[in-house]
Amino acid sequence: MVSKFTKKTPPKSIKDCRNNRGRHRRRSPVKKAAIRASSAVLTTINKSLYTCHRRLIKIFSKLARIGSPNRNKGYKILTKTKESENKYRPDFEIPSSIRRTLVFDNNNGLPPMMSPERRTVFLDLDETLVHSMPDPPPERFDFVVRPVIDGEILNYYVLKRPGVDEFLEALGAKYELVVFTAGLKEYASLVLDRLDRKRVIAHRLYRDSCKEVDGRFVKDLSELGRDLKRVVIVDDNPNSYMLQPCNAVPVRPFVDDLEDRELTNLVSFFKGSDHFDDMRDAVKHYFARGDIDQLLVTSEL
């Protein structure tokens, strides 16, 4: 029996196949042209950078020579004479009262009064001048403010107390009005921008100006740079004026009573308080009598 043997050639390895493929690859003319163009661009950029570098060195060397003093002479030290001292001195002396106004160093937020004859009225905001509610919207409101608190936009629907516009206008012409609220500035500033259209409120103080006593926000009037004889505070919260109760004019909290007349009555009180040198005496007289008309009669005598 004759057997036939066939010679088997070993299969080509993957490496040999890859080498053979690489031998047959040739670069296309388009790729060659792109490579030549890119190399030419790089060469041009290198030449431009080198030229700019050389020019900058020349410019800065010239500037260094211009700004340097003369080696022999150096800088000249000027002597101080009486003539040079008086050359730019003004011919008039600034009054001490104006100097105190220009140099203001008060950490509590109230600058000195421009008119010392005026008295100061501190006004609370929420439940005294307005009442505000968050979402959902109430049935009655005058305007909406949208403060950003802790990165979140909130809606507050504000209802003005009856007579608040007339109250602010009447007192603003006669007193220094300062709104002192325990509310956050992000919220209260937006409310005051809408409420004080005629800009009669002189200053604004927020929660950061309050003191915290036993977890309650207290408004200390003694640290605001005003004589306590010439100030009062109108507030619905007794905790706010617990440090100066004799300077307080309490009012009932306002929520949504459209028949409320608290602010209208207070206008009459402030008209009658002109008779008293000390505002605390006016407050004492007002609450002792319990009659605003009697206070008005006394002021006309």
Automatic annotation (TrEMBL):
PROSITE patterns named in the record: FCP1
MF terms in GO: phosphatase activity
InterPro entries named among the record's database cross-references: Dullard_phosphatase (IPR011948), FCP1_dom (IPR004274), HAD-like_sf (IPR036412), HAD_sf (IPR023214), TIM50 (IPR050365)
Ranges of residues in domain FCP1 homology: 114-273
Disordered, as annotated region: 1-34
Start-end of Basic residues biased regions: 1-10, 20-34
Pfam family, any one: NIF
Signal peptide: none
UniProt protein name: FCP1 homology domain-containing protein
Gene source species: Ziziphus jujuba var. spinosa
